[in-house]
Amino acid sequence: MQTSASSVAPDGGVRSGLTTTESAFIEQAQRNGDLYIDQPYDLYSEANHRAWQSLFARMRGPWERYGNPSFLRGIDSLALDPNRVPRLSDVNQFLSPLTGFSAKAVSGYVPAYLFFDCLRNREFPTTITIRREDRLDYLPEPDIFHDIAGHVPMHTDRAFADTLVHFGECARRAAEIGQGIADPGERLATLTSILRAMARFFWFTIEFGLMESPNGLRAYGSGLLSSYGELSHSIDSPTVQRSPMQLEWVIHQSFEIDRYQPLLFSVASFDHLFELVNELERWMLDGKLNNVAPGEPEVSPLDLQSFLDANG
Ligand SMILES: [Fe+2]
């Protein structure tokens, strides 16, 4: 069993590469407690690059057909190489001048408060591993294709980028609300409910959002834009229920992550989305997120703790 990230396979390539759940480099970083890391670009194997190439090639058509215009502009602006896994430093050279955002390499799951706080600072925690080339379709965890090809093109749009920053500010507001509650049980219950509401909002917008356009609905959510099967399904399938975004519905609506989404919400514009985050913040301050409907997603102890540990 190989344990070194630089172990060389008989074919001369790096055996583990930077493949999802199979990367010795990532395992070591996690053992070291290193959340924010460099992208060790030379570790990508040829299989990793082929996976990127296949994913990118097959999405081009669906992106043109179903992608929000801001996303399509973003893909062009970033000048992503269709054949090679991107270097984050190259991506940031194109991205940062547009909105101040940058992609920041991480070794794995980022606890919720830290994730949102990165957004507030215009940094996007970015997975650097990539799915196996023989398993392009289903992946329960994010990878660099989801993060760079699905999320980051949206970060070139100023109104969308400002919305993400505002969402990060909401997370800070939530932490302050928690700190203002003396009773530990009440503090946990309140934060759990607020985090569940925020996660639902994030899911139905940033991950799976649709937007109205003169040609019908178009996707801006990264979960859709990085899924070959679900992107067309989200817009064309008669089995999907699509509704204009309603905050009161979304914060109480549970979801499951391991299936095509049967229910999606649309916004009119990114200014509309920004205004919805404003409303979310107002509701949070008014206590209207303190008792949202139970159910998915679960709020993990790690995420809760990250909010309890937050300091202004
Ligand atoms: Fe995502």
Question: Please, could you describe this protein's structure?
Answer:
By secondary structure, this protein is of the alpha/beta class. It has a single domain (24-308), classed as Aromatic amino acid hydroxylase (Phenylalanine Hydroxylase, Orthogonal Bundle), CATH 1.10.800.10. The protein contains 13 helices and six strands. It has helices at 24-32, 46-66, 69-78, 88-99, 112-120, 144-151, 158-179, 184-207, 222-225, 228-236, 247-250, 270-285, 301-308; strands at 102-106, 123-127, 210-211, 218-219, 241-244, 263-267. The longest helix has 24 residues, at 184-207. It starts with 23 loop residues before the first helix and ends with a helix. The model is unreliable at 1-14 (pLDDT under 50). Bound molecules: fe (ii) ion. Residues 142, 146, 151, 207, 222-223 line the site of fe (ii) ion.
Count of DSSP-assigned helices: 13
Bin the strand percentage: 5-15%
Strand order of the largest sheet: 4-3-6-5
Largest sheet: 4 strands, mixed
Distance between the termini: 45 Å
Number of strands: 6
Gyration radius, rounded:
19 Å
The residue fraction in helices comes out at 40-55%
Could you say which structural class the secondary elements and strand pairing correspond to?
Answer: alpha/beta
Overall, the morphology is globular
- Bound ions, cofactors and other small molecules, one mention each: fe (ii) ion
Which series of helices and strands comes N to C? HHHHEHEHHHEEHHEHEHH
Show unreliable segments: 1-14
- Provide the CATH top-level class: Mainly Alpha
What is the CATH topology assignment?
Phenylalanine Hydroxylase
> Looking at this structure, what is the CATH superfamily?
Aromatic amino acid hydroxylase
| Integer count of domains | 1
Mean pLDDT: 93
What's the architecture, going by CATH?
Orthogonal Bundle
